[in-house]
Every structure is written in structure tokens, then in C-alpha cells.
């Protein structure tokens, strides 16, 4: 069982997954900061200075606070502002991933076209022989060949 586990861990897919999770976690922090520190303040300034993070509906009658943290201490609240922030984080992340995948796909298409062009072009010796054959069929003489 130890040997099987060792083989499983040594496979590339497991290591790729581990790297992906670690990078994804770090990327999540970047997107959260981008949303919280850059996009949300700009959206707040454009739309009149509101902040999504303190939008909530009290579910308990004893909640009278104006901030989400204070309201949570007083009772149950429906924090829809936090949900809106999470949705914006998701949309931003999805757009960034879309751009990354689009860029990679464009690079792959370009590489595939280059490979197709290289594969479709005959080797130099075949191309030379084809030119000689075509010249002979037309009855032309090559200037560099003595008769």
C-alpha cells in the first residue's frame, strides 16, 4: 500500500493539482484585493459613494446597527452586500481566466498554423526536383546547367 501511495503522489497530475491549488489560493487573494481595494471604491465613487459591504437586511427585531459587523453582533442579518461582493469577485476572476485561456488558445492556434505550414511545405530537395521536372515539361533549360 505504501508503494502504491508513493507512485500516486509521484504522478505528475497530483503535483500539477497541488501547484494549481496553491497558485489558485494566492490568485484568489489578488482578486479579492483588486475587488475590495480598487474596483469597489471606484464603483462607490461612480454610483454615489455607496459601499456594498455594509448592505444587509436585519432578520431579527433587535438589530438596529448601521454597519454589518455591529449588526451581526446584535442578531441575524441577511448580508446581501457581501454576496454582491463575492459575485463581483467571481465575475472578475472568471473574466481574467477567460482572458488567460483565450491567450493560450491563440498561442496554440499560431503554433499549429506554423506546424501545418512547415509540414505542408516539401523538403528542399523535393522542391528542387519538382522545379526541374516542371522546367523539363515546359522545355526550358536551366541557365546554370551546361548542355
Walk me through what this model shows.
- The protein is an all-alpha fold and 147 residues long.
- Helix content is 73%, strand content 3%.
- It contains five helices and two strands.
- Strands 1-2 form a two-stranded antiparallel sheet.
- α2 crosses α4.
- The longest helix is centred in the last third of the chain and has 41 residues.
- The chain is elongated, with a radius of gyration of 32 Å.
- It starts with a helix and ends in a 9-residue tail after the last helix.
- The model has no long low-confidence stretch (mean pLDDT 81).
- List the quaternary state of the chains: single chain
Radius of gyration: 32 Å
> What is the structural class?
mainly alpha
Helix proportion range: over 70%
Cα(first) to Cα(last) distance is: 79 Å
Shape: elongated
Profile the largest sheet: 2 strands, antiparallel
Low-confidence stretches: none
Topology (SSEs and partners):
Elements: H1 2-10, H2 12-46, E1 57-58, H3 68-74, E2 77-78, H4 80-120, H5 124-138
Antiparallel strand pairs: 1-2
Helix pairs in contact: 2-4
Provide a quick synopsis of the model.
The protein is an all-alpha fold. The chain contains 5 helices and 2 strands; from the N terminus they run ααβαβαα.
List keywords for this structure.
mainly alpha; 2 strands; two-stranded antiparallel ribbon; 73% helix; 147 residues; 5 helices; 3% strand
Amino acid at each position: 500500500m505504501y508503494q502504491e501511495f508513493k507512485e500516486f503522489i509521484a504522478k505528475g497530475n497530483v503535483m500539477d493539482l497541488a501547484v494549481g491549488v496553491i497558485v489558485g489560493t494566492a490568485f484568489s487573494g489578488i482578486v479579492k484585493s483588486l475587488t475590495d481595494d480598487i474596483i469597489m471604491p471606484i464603483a462607490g465613487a461612480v454610483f454615489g459613494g455607496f459601499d456594498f459591504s455594509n448592505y444587509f437586511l436585519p432578520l431579527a427585531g433587535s438589530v438596529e446597527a448601521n454597519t454589518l459587523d455591529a449588526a451581526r453582533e446584535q442578531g441575524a442579518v441577511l448580508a446581501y452586500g457581501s454576496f454582491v461582493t463575492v459575485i463581483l469577485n467571481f465575475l472578475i476572476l472568471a473574466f481574467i481566466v477567460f482572458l488567460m485561456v483565450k491567450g493560450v488558445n491563440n498561442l496554440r492556434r499560431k503554433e499549429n498554423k506554423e506546424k501545418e505550414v512547415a509540414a505542408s511545405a516539401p523538403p528542399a530537395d523535393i522542391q528542387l526536383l519538382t522545379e526541374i521536372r516542371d522546367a523539363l515539361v515546359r522545355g526550358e533549360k536551366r541557365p546554370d546547367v551546361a548542355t
